[in-house]
Amino acid sequence: MPKLIAGAFVTLDNVVQDPGGFGEIEHGGWALEYFDDLSRQRATDALLASDTFLLGRVTYEILEKAWSSNTGPYAEAMNNLPKAVVTSTLSGPLPWNATALTGEAAQTVAKLKQERGGNIVMYGSFTLMRTLLQHGLIDELNLGVHPVVVGAGRRLFDTVLPRSLRFVAATPSATGVVTLTYAP
Fold first, then answer.
1. What pairing do the DSSP bridges indicate for beta strands 166-172 and 140-146?
2. pLDDT band at 69; cut points 50, 70, 90
3. What are the domain boundaries of the chain?
4. Which run of H or E residues covers position 79?
5. Which of 33, 48, 71, 127, by CA, is between 20 and 30 Å from 41?
6. What is the C-alpha to C-alpha distance for residues 58 and 78, in angstroms, rounded to an integer?
7. Please, is 124 exposed, middle or buried when counting C-beta atoms within 10 Å of its C-beta (0-12, 13-18, 19+)?
């Protein structure tokens, strides 16, 4: 069964919204100055090591608009990767090499994990991420903790999760970001 590897950029005050500066919050783009060549290569490698990119609808719409016409190794890896969009409002084949997955999120993703052969990568989609964590469907959680406080925005853990996580590793970057890896 493939692993579902979820990742998020997070600030010291637990904000996960708009790290790329897509206009969601006033201080959006807070992660950009910390994204160096090594970070870009690691992100590209993670995409290339996966068979599916899992997203919720909102994150899909933001990333499709921002990345579908970009070029370069990271953009090409992202654009070529088949995407599965968990949604209750979209249907059928979608632009940007994507397919809508309808139904209850946890059941839909559990079924996806049984059908796919290779790993599934997931960025953002925090409502979906919380649901999948609560149902034990995420096999690895990578949190890129950025040394910045933005004060406002959606937070990753705004509710208490019923499951604990096991620490696996901490990987620091030259820019001050520490990626914390956890497993259920």
1. unpaired
2. very high
3. 4-183
4. helix 73-80
5. 127
6. 17
7. buried
pLDDT at 100: 96
Q: What pTM was estimated for this model as a whole?
A: 0.93
Strand partners, 120: 4, 52
pLDDT digits (tens, 9 = 90+) for 128-150: 999 999 899 999 999 999 999 99
Structure tokens at 171: 């990987």
Q: Do 56 and 87 form a contact (C-beta atoms < 8 A)? A: yes
Specify the fold of 4-183: Dihydrofolate Reductase, subunit A (3.40.430)
Q: What is the pLDDT of residue 149?
A: 97
Contact 128, 86 (CB under 8 A): yes
The pair phi, psi for residue 140, each rounded to 5°, is -150, 130
